[in-house]
Design goal:
alpha/beta, Nucleotidyltransferase, domain 5, 202 residues, 5 strands, 7 helices
């Protein structure tokens, strides 16, 4: 991005980390109690069950409350149906965050094909308040949103969901709970080892 755009971004702007995850009716495995010598078994069929895509974004600025924004999309089972989010879904999440924080955004995300496509580059260029940086390849440890997914999936461990809409409700509720826990979000950021301090005046 151009120098002018970067200069505007650091003037009262938010640093935002984005990542995406997928959920199905097959629950994440986790530890649980059971009789000695008898392994607990959760029976669930993941065939033709569809998929839930979730994009999450952590917005932080020194001196302000850390925020979590998210966008969900369900993908019913069936041949020829899209099973992931597209550029418009991601930019809608960023636009919604911008309306919430009312400040420039420095967006940091991975190198997903929809993040670096020509369509996405055009959408970014249309937004003077948005500056984008790409994370190094294969570096999930630098993205605090990865901790969000770990937290949500751990809370869903061994849970057999009967319907895709029920799974969507559970994931949405877990994410909404995190929105009211900025200290937990700050802990996710600290877990990356990144030092995010206020810019020092020249």
């Amino acid at each position: 991005m151009g120098g002018g755009k970067r200069a505007r971004a650091v003037c009262g702007g938010y640093i935002c980390f984005e990542d995406e995850a997928g959920f199905t009716r097959r629950p994440p495995r986790g530890r649980t109690w059971g009789r000695r010598g008898v392994t607990p078994v959760v029976t669930v069929s993941g065939r033709r069950s569809g998929r839930l895509s979730v994009a999450g974004l952590i917005a932080m600025r020194p001196g302000s409350r850390t925020r979590l924004c998210h966008r969900l999309r369900t993908h019913p089972a069936g041949k020829g149906t899209r099973r992931s989010m597209g550029e418009r879904d991601f930019i809608a999440l960023v636009d919604g965050t911008h309306q919430l924080v009312r400040a420039p955004i420095v967006l940091v995300w991975g190198r997903l094909n929809t993040h670096v496509s020509r369509t996405m580059r055009n959408l970014i260029a249309e937004r003077p308040w948005l500056t984008v940086f790409l994370l190094p390849a294969c570096s999930p440890d630098l993205n605090p949103v990865e901790w969000v997914w770990a937290h949500v999936k751990r809370s869903l461990a061994n849970l057999a969901v009967m319907a895709l809409d029920r799974l969507e409700t559970l994931v949405r509720n877990r994410l909404k709970g995190l929105q009211y826990r900025p200290d937990t979000l700050d802990g996710f950021i600290a877990g990356t080892g990144l030092a995010l301090d206020s810019p020092t005046p020249p």
